[in-house]
Design goal:
The complex is a heterodimer.
Chain A (H helix, E strand, L loop, with lengths): L3 E2 L4 E5 L4 E7 L4 E9 L6 E7 L4 E4 L2 E6 L4 E6 L8 E9 L7 E2 L3 E6 L1
Chain B lengths: L3 E4 L2 E4 L4 E8 L5 E7 L6 E7 L2 E5 L6 E7 L2 E7 L7 E8 L9 E2 L3 E5 L1
Parallel strand pairs in B: 2-11
Antiparallel strand pairs in B: 1-3, 3-8, 4-5, 4-9, 5-6, 7-8, 9-10, 9-11
The chains are: A mainly beta, B mainly beta.
Chain lengths: 113, 114
């Protein structure tokens, strides 16, 4: 039973436009969420996080939105750049991050020049 | 340069072989992790070490045996593996044992069991 779901395995976006990656979770005890980015043949790299006391966190071109009532979070990238082409993983944890991370299956983002 | 180095990058072994995966971090982190990523599945946490002590074993079969001789090195000893163990094995580290700390991942070892 997957507790963190990324229902879109892939997404293509034109360069310069907004990329929106979605993630849904089922465990109401999750209160800390992270996004990781992975290039081929490399390990995931941490991108941005958010705790449940906030509904938005922004870092440059990357913004994560959290909707606790819908158990949904999204990562917005604007403007999208070719270097953003990668697989993006959503991860969640409970006890404000003191529990193990549960990952989604990832979404492959392709930025079209 | 990720700061977390895994060797080898690729490994092909038979079911009766014994091999070891190595992970090294020079970030001064105190916590290290082994993850498994199978095709089309999420990353699964296998083991957690905090200050060289194992604090989590996520119901991993005994054919996987971790070893953490010091806070900079982590090994995963493999013995009598099954074809379903073919996967990408990722090592990670974090400054603080609290799992909320962003984890720094190595590039992984792609393991294929014949």
């Amino acid at each position: 039973d997957q507790q963190v779901k990324q229902n879109s395995p892939s997404l293509s976006v034109q360069e310069g436009r907004i990329s929106i990656l979605n993630c849904d979770y089922t465990n109401s005890m999750f209160d800390y969420f992270l996004w990781y980015k992975k290039y081929p043949a490399e390990g995931p790299t941490f991108l941005i996080s958010i705790s449940s006391i906030k509904d938005k966190n922004e870092d440059g071109r990357f913004t994560v939105f959290l909707n606790k009532s819908a158990k949904h979070l999204s990562l917005h990238i604007v403007p999208s750049q070719p270097g953003d082409s990668a697989v993006y993983f959503c991860a969640a944890s409970g006890d404000f991050g003191n529990e193990k991370l549960t990952f989604g299956t990832g979404t492959r983002l392709t930025i079209i020049p | 340069e990720t700061g977390v180095t895994q060797t080898p990058r690729h490994l092909v072994m038979g079911m009766t072989n014994k091999k070891s995966l190595k992970c090294e971090q020079h970030l001064g982190h105190n916590a290290m992790y082994w993850y498994k990523q199978s095709a089309k599945k999420p990353l699964e946490l296998m083991f957690v070490y905090n200050f060289k002590e194992q604090t989590e074993n996520n119901s991993v079969p005994s054919r996987f045996s971790p070893e953490c001789p010091n806070s900079s090195h982590l090994f995963l000893h493999l013995h009598t593996l099954q074809p379903e163990d073919s996967a990408l094995y990722l090592c990670a580290s974090s400054q603080d044992p609290a799992l909320s700390q962003p984890q720094h991942f190595g590039d992984g070892t792609r393991l294929s069991i014949l």
